[in-house]
């Protein structure tokens, strides 16, 4: 079977790495992939939004299954395009309508409200209703949460304590701070609690629950500094125990999938539920229609059943017959980033690992330089270790990070340490 993984980051490296363990005979292509995926797959240069290239690759390489990693091609309708242009290929990734669960915060909030899925109280406004939006803000308690409706590369959520600042940011968004993504703004209640992420593979009727994870979004230790794509991840999450996950299944996952079916949405792919645990009750902060990065790097290493089999069943609509097996081992992923990220940073530094790192190394932002692999992004490598408990996985991941070198490297020192104290391991 030939598989095409769309994307070129750590998430796609981890998905392709897991597919590569399948007992089904396979041949993996990545578009564009990275030097990490090149170790076991064929990379095809190009852009993830070049649908024609994807179609031509499907036909030239006799691809049976396309797995779409990032959200942008999904929101732009790659699944619908392939359904029309290459109807025999199986696609993991929702239709354009399904992708609106991530592509429009207003669509997602309306969906949750209609289907009775717990989420923060909200209202949506356009620029014409700036005054009404300000009146709504006044009704809310600080901190104020403003969300640009459309995709804004993870930057579209603003949380501020001061009402005047919220009003002026609202104006900035309407004035184009996030481009067209800010034509509409969702204002919502601030949810107090601890965040975690749940992931499923769904064929639109049934689902497999993947291991849950927690990511670390802020750049600095102790959750300080600017927001990033994610500086590390850990799985499992101790407070996501049996009773809590039962609430997540019955109040959130199952009503979401039932809602997708009821609304007639064509959905075969991943759903990533960004959740807030508010005193033991889960609320949805956001939906993503893809896996998280760097959550995937931890999650994939904990799936012990055959992911490729699950993905084929997902595309065929037979997920009800599948069972997922999850390893008892913990996973901790530490992102090695370029100094300066998420603001300006230098690239093209050689990456050196004089000895075996002793953990899995997924490539996020790397490229080929002069005879070596060089840094080529803000997030450069995701280093993942598995061990019987989080404390050991964390130690192993940091030991491995210590065995890899590139100039100006930056990483957080406290990935997963909050869970150690929560779980009483420290
Ligand atoms: P998002 O881009 O939707 O993932 O939001 C970015 C981050 O903002 C989330 O990971 C949360 O930490 C935070 N956030 C978003 N919405 C809320 C909310 N209603 N209450 C508290 N925090 C929120
Ligand atoms: N790590 C968060 C995300 O992928 O959206």
Query: What helical percentage do the residues reach?
Result: 25-40%
The CATH topology of the largest domain is: D-amino Acid Aminotransferase, Chain A, domain 1
Poorly predicted residue ranges: none
Amino- and carboxy-terminal Cα gap: 46 Å
Q: What class, by secondary structure content?
A: alpha+beta
Rounded to an integer, what's the Rg over CA atoms? 21 Å
Mean pLDDT: 95
Overall number of structural domains: 4
CATH class membership of the largest domain: Alpha Beta
**Sheet having the most strands:** 6 strands, antiparallel
Question: Under the CATH scheme, which architecture of the largest domain would be assigned?
Answer: 2-Layer Sandwich
What bound compounds does this protein have? Answer: adenosine monophosphate, glycine
The CATH superfamily of the largest domain bears the name: ATP-grasp fold, B domain
Describe what this molecule looks like in 3D.
This protein has 426 residues and is an alpha+beta fold. It folds into four domains: 2-93, 3-Layer(aba) Sandwich (Rossmann fold), CATH 3.40.50; 122-188, ATP-grasp fold, A domain (Dna Ligase, domain 1, 2-Layer Sandwich); 194-321, ATP-grasp fold, B domain (D-amino Acid Aminotransferase, Chain A, domain 1, 2-Layer Sandwich); 330-422, Phosphoribosylglycinamide synthetase, C-terminal domain (Glycinamide Ribonucleotide Synthetase, Chain A, domain 4, Alpha-Beta Complex), CATH 3.90.600.10. It contains 13 helices and 23 strands. Strands 12, 15, 18, 19, 22 and 23 form a six-stranded antiparallel beta sheet that branches. The chain has a five-stranded parallel beta sheet with strand order 3-2-1-4-5, sandwiched between helices. Strand 1 (2-7), helix 1 (10-19) and strand 2 form a beta-alpha-beta unit. The longest helix has 21 residues, at 242-262. The chain is globular and about 60 Å long. The N and C termini lie far apart (46 Å). The mean pLDDT is 95. Adenosine monophosphate binds next to strand 17.
């Amino acid at each position: 079977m030939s598989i095409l993984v769309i994307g070129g980051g750590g998430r796609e490296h981890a998905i392709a790495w897991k597919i590569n363990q399948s007992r089904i005979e396979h041949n993996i292509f990545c578009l564009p992939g990275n030097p990490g995926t090149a170790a076991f797959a064929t990379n095809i240069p190009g852009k993830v939004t070049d649908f024609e290239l994807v179609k031509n690759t499907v036909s030239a390489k006799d691809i049976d299954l396309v797995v779409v990693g990032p959200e942008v091609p999904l929101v732009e309708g790659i699944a619908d395009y392939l359904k029309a242009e290459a109807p025999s290929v199986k696609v993991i990734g929702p239709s354009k309508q399904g992708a609106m669960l991530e592509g429009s915060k207003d669509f997602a909030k309306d969906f949750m409200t209609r289907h009775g899925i717990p989420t923060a109280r909200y209202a949506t406004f356009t620029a014409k209703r700036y005054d009404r939006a300000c009146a709504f803000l006044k009704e809310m308690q600080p901190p104020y949460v403003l969300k640009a409706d459309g995709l804004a590369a993870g930057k579209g959520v603003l949380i501020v304590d001061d009402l005047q600042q919220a009003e002026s940011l609202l104006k900035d968004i309407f004035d184009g701070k996030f481009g067209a993504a800010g034509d509409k703004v969702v204002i919502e209640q601030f949810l107090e609690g601890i965040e975690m992420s749940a992931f499923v593979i769904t064929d639109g009727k049934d689902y497999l629950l993947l291991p849950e994870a927690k990511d670390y979004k802020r750049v600095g230790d102790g959750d300080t500094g600017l927001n990033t794509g994610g500086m590390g991840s850990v799985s499992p999450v101790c407070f996501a125990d049996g009773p809590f996950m039962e609430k997540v299944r019955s109040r959130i996952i199952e009503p979401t999938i039932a809602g997708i079916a009821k609304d007639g949405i064509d959905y075969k792919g991943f759903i990533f539920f960004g959740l807030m645990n508010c005193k033991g009750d889960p609320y949805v902060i956001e939906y993503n229609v893809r896996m998280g990065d760097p959550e995937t790097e931890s999650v994939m290493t904990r799936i012990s059943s055959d992911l490729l089999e699950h993905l084929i069943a997902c595309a065929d609509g037979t997920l009800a017959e599948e069972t997922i097996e999850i390893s008892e081992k913990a996973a901790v992923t530490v992102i090695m980033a370029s100094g300066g990220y998420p603001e300006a940073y230098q690239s093209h530094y050689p990456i050196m690992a004089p000895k075996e790192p002793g953990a899995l190394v997924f490539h996020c932002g790397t490229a080929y330089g002069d005879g070596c692999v060089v840094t080529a992004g803000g997030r450069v490598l995701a280093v993942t270790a598995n061990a019987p408990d989080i404390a050991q996985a964390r130690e192993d991941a940091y030991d491995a990070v210590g065995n890899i070198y590139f100039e100006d490297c930056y990483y957080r020192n406290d990935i997963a340490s909050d869970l150690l104290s929560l779980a009483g391991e420290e």
